[in-house]
Design a protein that fits this description.
Blueprint lengths: L14 E5 L19 H10 L4 E5 L4 E6 L3 H8 L6 E4 L2 E4 L30 E5 L5 H14 L21 E5 L2 E7 H10 L5 E2 L4 E2 L2 E3 L8 H11 L5 E4 L3 E7 L3 H14 L2
Antiparallel strand pairs: 1-3, 2-3, 4-5, 6-8, 6-9, 7-8, 10-13, 11-13, 12-13
Length: 268
């Protein structure tokens, strides 16, 4: 419904949401397990089959978005490991490979994915959730942070390795649950504005970022998620139009950077 505008870019793909449920329950993002729990079983196999994904972690859970046109490949790739359902009128209906076989082509074996440069700004972030009825108390502040606190984009510096800080704010409203990522200084302002408790993930987080290549390229989430999963390091992951953002516990940032550097060097 948004009118065409030269100031707005819209990706040409329609995306579908995959939610991974374990034993009938969705994994809780507030336990800081995040993308690491599904890295090996979902993200890595999809990357091997050339399926591009967008990753969205919230305080409550994690979502994987895949392009609608890739659904046959996704189903055939994951059917051996998962029971797959689609939601119809609030009911979960089993999906089989035969349901989406039209147009399915067996992917060629994937070559080793290109590893993209990772930058690690020093900004510290917090992941938190608020009750919907508390929003009026902080609405003005959230609008100010979301729309008016950004510095002008740095044309030459977007992919540089010496980025010391980054402006980043994420607000998700999914089925009534509110999830917010904000820098530690903004979080202090919000806490002072609220007269009721707010749940926040323990500890601040450091923030490696990956500038996104063309949208058809895959394996970016796997580049970060696989080595962290192998080392049992928690991660909170958000894909955006221009960047992928991975938040990890601040006390583990040195180990994360070392792991990613080792992976980068081994690929050369």
């Amino acid at each position: 419904e948004l009118p065409p505008s030269e100031f707005m870019q819209v990706a040409d793909s329609t995306w579908l949401v995959l939610s991974v449920v374990s034993n009938g329950r969705e994994p809780s993002g507030c336990q800081a397990t995040g993308v690491t729990k599904i890295a090996r079983s979902v993200i890595a196999p999809l990357a091997e089959h050339h399926v591009s994904v967008l990753m969205l972690s919230t305080y409550q859970t994690d979502f994987i978005l895949v392009r609608e046109r890739d659904l046959p490949v996704v189903i055939h790739t994951l059917a051996g490991e998962f029971d797959i359902y689609r939601e119809e009128s609030g009911e979960c209906v089993p999906v089989t490979c035969d349901d989406v076989s039209n147009g399915f082509l067996k992917p060629k074996p994937a070559a080793s994915p290109t590893l993209h440069p990772v930058q690690s700004p020093q900004t510290r972030f917090c992941v938190l959730t608020v009750a919907p009825d508390t929003l009026p108390a902080i609405a003005t502040m959230l609008i100010d942070v979301l729309f008016y606190s950004h510095s002008p984009p740095r044309e030459a510096g977007a992919g540089s390795q010496d980025l010391d800080s980054i402006t980043f704010f994420a607000f998700s409203l999914i089925e009534g649950y509110i999830s917010i990522v904000m820098d530690a200084e903004t979080q202090k302002r919000v806490m002072l504005s609220l007269r009721v408790p707010m749940a926040a993930s323990p500890g601040a987080t450091a923030h490696p970022g990956v500038p996104l290549p063309p949208p058809d390229e895959c394996g970016i989430v796997a580049q970060i998620a696989e080595p962290l999963a192998a080392a049992d390091i928690s991660a909170y992951y958000i894909s955006t139009f221009n960047f992928d953002h991975a938040l990890v516990p601040e006390e583990g940032i040195a180990e994360v950077i070392q792991l990613l550097q080792q992976r980068q060097e081994s690929s050369r």
